[in-house]
Amino acid sequence: MHENMNKLDGMDIEMFVISKDSPEELRTLQNKLEKTFGHTLSFISDPKLELIEKMGMKKNGVAYRGYSMIDKEGYIIFSTKNDHWGEQIEITVEKIKEEYNKLK
């Protein structure tokens, strides 16, 4: 995603990575990404999978890979489980933009 963040330019959104990993683990990853790409997304540690579950992205104590959109009030706009969303970045961006435009 980091190499494709510009594909969502012009949208009034904030992007986050949500993970079960600890804040320390995420800080290490975030530092590596910052070093590699010169920028990074913000990370949210969700060790109890509470937000992940709210987004419908939890099964048997594990988080699915995918992407979601949450509005400013915390309501889930949509959630997509997809292990290959990064490989299918054009489809991913198209879906995000489609859902975003529905909010206008």
Unreliable stretches covering 5 or more consecutive residues? none
Mean pLDDT figure:
90
The assigned structural class equals: alpha+beta
Number of helices: 3
Shape: globular
* Highest-level CATH class: Alpha Beta
Explain briefly what this protein structure is.
With 104 residues, the chain is α+β, with helices and mostly antiparallel strands.
How are the SSEs ordered, and which strands pair?
Layout (H helix, E strand, L loop, with lengths): L15 E4 L3 H15 L4 E4 L4 H5 L3 E2 L2 E2 L2 E5 L5 E6 L7 H14 L2
Parallel strand pairs: 1-2
Antiparallel strand pairs: 3-4, 5-6
Structure description:
The chain is an alpha+beta fold and 104 residues long. It has a single domain (5-89), classed as Glutaredoxin, CATH 3.40.30. 33% of the residues lie in helices and 22% in strands. It is built from 3 helices and 6 strands; from the N terminus they run E-H-E-H-E-E-E-E-H. The mean pLDDT is 90. One of its GO terms (molecular function) is antioxidant activity. Keywords: Disulfide bond. It comes from Cytobacillus depressus. Residues 2-77 form the Alkyl hydroperoxide reductase subunit C/ Thiol specific antioxidant domain.
Notable features of this structure?
22% strand, alpha+beta, 33% helix
